[in-house]
Amino acid sequence: LQVPRTPSQPAAGSESRRFANKHSKKALKASLTLGILLGMFFVAWLPFFVTNVTQAVCGCVPAGFFDVLTWLGYCNSTMNPIIYPLFMRDFKRAMGKYLPCCRRSGEPRPSAISLSMRNSNSGPRAATSLKNIL
């Protein structure tokens, strides 16, 4: 027995392929960003932790070398705000809204009140007086 084939719709197939291709590109970019962040973390902090264990066991690590490795780890923390905007468009847009150096000339600066109202999911409320309550 053979199962009869139904004719496929080329428009739906190409759209699903386009969606899958777009999704795979996003996943690849996210994987690349995560790989770079984790790679930099290990490059910066692994020598510090190995040296720290070595210092605890034999006490043979010079203080200056230990300080250099500590500052290498601290530099990793300063690299994260540089790496995120390079690879994440949404992060770049969000930072551009709040940093004066990155804001476009026509965009107004968001106020603290508008931010808190947006984050609390509450819109503007009518003024409530004591007379309306009683």
Give a verbal description of the structure.
The protein has 134 residues and is mostly helical. It has a domain at 18-96. It is 72% helix and 0% strand. It is built from five helices and no strands. It has helices at 10-58, 63-87, 89-98, 112-119, 130-133. The model has no long low-confidence stretch (mean pLDDT 74). Its main location: membrane. One of its GO terms (molecular function) is G protein-coupled receptor activity. Pfam families: 7tm_1. Residues 1-84 form the G-protein coupled receptors family 1 profile domain. Keywords: Cell membrane, G-protein coupled receptor, Membrane, Receptor, Transducer, Transmembrane, Transmembrane helix.
Write the layout of secondary structure elements.
Blueprint: H1 10-58, H2 63-87, H3 89-98, H4 112-119, H5 130-133
Helix pairs in contact: 1-2, 2-3
Region (Disordered): 114-134
Main location: membrane
Pfam families: 7tm_1
Radius of gyration, Cα only, in angstroms?
A: 27 Å
Tell me the distance between the termini: 81 Å
What form results from the Cα inertia axes?
flat
User: Structural class given helices, strands, pairing?
Assistant: mainly alpha
**Number of helical regions:** 5
| Beta fraction | under 5%
Instruction: Report helical residue fraction.
Output: over 70%
Largest sheet: none
Task: Name the helix and strand elements from N-terminus to C-terminus, one letter apiece.
Answer: HHHHH
Identify low-pLDDT runs.
none
Mean pLDDT: 74
Give the strand tally.
Answer: 0
Membrane topology: Multi-pass membrane protein
GO biological process, one term: positive regulation of MAPK cascade
Protein name: 5HT6R protein
Pfam family, one: 7tm_1
